[in-house]
Amino acid sequence: MTGLESTLSGIIRAAAPIVIAAQGELITERSGVINLSLDGTIMLSAMTAHAVTRTTGSLTQGVLAAMAVGAGMAFIVVFSSIALRLNQVAVGFVLTILGADLAIFLGKPHFNQVGREIPHMPIPVLKDIPLLGPVLFNHNILIYLSLILVAAITFYIYRTRPGLTLRAIGEQPEAAFVRGTPVNALRFVYTMIGGSLVGLAGATYSLSVKLGWREDLSGEGWIALAIVIFGLWIPGRVALGAFFIVGLRSIAIDLQSSRVIDLPAQIVNMLPWFLMILTLMVATSGVLERVVRYTPARFQPAARRFLRAGPPAALGTPFEKR
Predict the structure, then answer these.
(1) 204 to each of 89, 113, 146, how far by Cα in Å?
(2) What is the DSSP string of 262-281?
(3) 167-211 tens-digit pLDDT
(4) What is the DSSP letter of 146?
(5) Cβ-Cβ contacts under 8 Å for 154 (sequence gap 6 or more)
(6) Short-list 82, 84, 45, 89, CA closest to 67
(7) Are 102 and 200 in contact (CB under 8 A)?
(8) Given 3.40.470, 3.40.50, 1.10.3470, 1.20.120, which CATH number is that of 3-307?
C-alpha cells in the first residue's frame, strides 16, 4: 500500500463513526426533531459496546447494546418533546452531560482494558483495484456500512415514497397530517432510528477506530452535529464534510509531527465550528441564489439541485393536532 493509499484509507476509517452519527442525526432532523445528545450518546454507547463485548465475548451483542443505548437516549428526547412538551434543545443538552458522566462512572471497570476488534474483511478482487481497492475495500464491516449508509439514505430520502413522507413531516407537518400521515408517530420512529445509528457510531469507535474504552471521545458528537449543518442536511455532502474534517485533522497532525508548523491541537478542533458558521452565513445570505441566477440557463437546474440549502422548515417545532 502506497503512502497516499494509506492516508486515504486512514481517513475513511477514522471518519466512519462521524459519518454514521451524522447520518443518524440527519434522519432525525429531517423528521423535524433536534437531538443534541449526540456527544453523550456516543460516549455512553462506546463504553457499552466495549463493556458488553468484554463481558459476553460477543461483538454482535456489543454492537446491538450500543444501538439500544442510542435509541433509548433518542426516545427520551422525542418523548419529552412530543408527550411532555419540553424543549428539545434543553433536553438534548441535559442528556449530553448525563450520558458523558454515566459513561465515565459506569466505564471505570473497563477503562483502558484490552477489548475485541471487529474482524478485518477485505473484499476479494475489489481490494486489488489500483488506488480504490486499498482505500475503499480493505476495511471491516462497520467501515463498509458507513459508506453504504450514505447511498442508502440518499436513495431513501429522494427516491422513495416513505422518504417523501419523511421530508414532508420535517418541512410541512400540518400538510402531511391533513393527508393522513401520523406525524408524531413517524417522528418517534425516525428519531429512534437516528439515535440507534448514533449508538452504532459509538460502537464503531470502541470496537474499530479507537479500540477499548477511553474518555477522549468528548467532542465527537458535536462535530457530527456541526457536519450535518455543514452538509446542508444532504447525505452525500454530510459524508464529504466528515471526510474533509478528518482529512484536515490528519494533515494538521502530520504537519505537527514533522514540525513543519507549530499548530495547537485546539485550533484543529475548532475548524468544524468555523466551517459551520461560514456555511450558515453563505446559506442564509442569498449568495447561493445569486450563483444559480448567473449560471448558464442549461446548467441552472443542476446548479439549483446541487446548491439547494437550508434546514427543514419545521425543525425543532413540535407538531400539535388541531
Answers:
(1) 26, 17, 10
(2) ---HHHHHHHHHHHHHHHHH
(3) 999 999 999 999 999 999 999 999 999 999 999 999 999 999 988
(4) H
(5) 234, 235, 236
(6) 45
(7) no
(8) 1.10.3470
